[in-house]
Amino acid sequence: MTRIIDSALDCKLLHSGPTQDESTLVLLRSKIFAIAKRLGISDLRREDILLVAAELATNNIKHANGRGMIQVWQQPGPVLDILSLDYGPGIADIAQAEQDGFSTANTFGKGLGAIRRLSDESYFYSQHNGSGPVTKWSGTVFLARFHLAADKSGVLGNDIGMFSRSLSDTRHNGDRIYLQKKDGRLRWLHLDGLGHGAEAQSATANLASHVDHPEGLEAILAGVDRQLVPTRGAVAAVCEIDTARRDLQLLGVGDMHARIFEKDEMQYVSFAPGILGREHRATSPFRATLGQRSVVVTASDGIRRNWDTGNFVGLFNQHPQLIAYTLGNIMGRVSDDQSICVSVVGK
């Protein structure tokens, strides 16, 4: 069986902290030292990661008045992501800001070029503040990615992004994403265990094998439904994309939500009410043929629904992992587990 990615094992928030003042750098350095030691990262590689993290934190302190955060994530690959997100004024002219050496009070200046040279991949998104009919977040997001293994076959690549964070960052997370790429097919099962804590996590555990079911999405959810009967239950969405034909199928039960972005327009997909393992209505798949470039998003109810393209102008043209981190951090509810899966089909 082709390997199935499990967000509980492969998508981990290792550190999250505010960037309020210079003391941030001391704590951040200590955290990265500990992470590097635990993951067996070489001293040279660790120094590159430290330099990038320090540059990102310093820019938050200087240009966003400390109203931001630095996060360290482990993703499939293995990959280490350093994420900077702030709530500052944003950058009015992104193209100019990306020129190495350019510097104003609202840009990364020379540090941007250094970050890009030291990291294996880097992605950048900003939204400038301003008045208008739509309430928009303003600020800057920067993702610096480091590959921790010479063999990159396990890296999800440029078509998948995942965000999964437990309530209050405890060790129990009832949200779970199982994902598999196989024979030109991308399929994932996205679950939210009822409630939160250890019982919710237990309900969504040990369901990976259903993703590899030889039949359709109805058979996958039926198998999950049966296995959840002894538990408190869960809601779920399952998605399948034939990447060659660009055929999309979405099927779900309960309070999950999905969106499809194409040609600057967002389509919302809802699911049948109910709870798997308990009572729920019969449901049938949503089907669509995707265009030249499409973004498909599934999210648990730990992610607020009141956003669209107007709130995040240009975001859905970015790398899927940057999309997932941005939505997860800005639209996540502090009262629940939170998770997002983002897939980009086409270029």
Describe the structure.
With 347 residues, the protein is an alpha+beta fold. The protein has two domains: 10-147, Heat Shock Protein 90; 157-346, PPM-type phosphatase domain (Phosphatase 2c, domain 1), CATH 3.60.40. Helix content is 24%, strand content 32%. It is built from eight helices and 16 strands. The chain has helices spanning 7-10, 23-39, 43-63, 94-97, 110-118, 198-204, 217-227, 320-331, and strands at 5-6, 12-18, 68-75, 79-86, 121-127, 139-147, 160-165, 175-182, 185-193, 234-242, 247-253, 257-262, 265-269, 286-289, 293-299, 338-346. A six-stranded antiparallel β-sheet has the order 1-8-9-10-11-14. The protein has a five-stranded antiparallel β-sheet with strand order 2-3-4-6-5, with helices on both faces. It has a five-stranded antiparallel β-sheet with strand order 7-16-15-12-13. Helix 2 runs antiparallel to helix 3 (43-63) and helix 3 packs antiparallel against helix 5. The radius of gyration is 20 Å and the shape is globular. The two termini are 29 Å apart. This is Transcriptional regulator. Residues 23-124 form the Histidine kinase/HSP90-like ATPase domain.
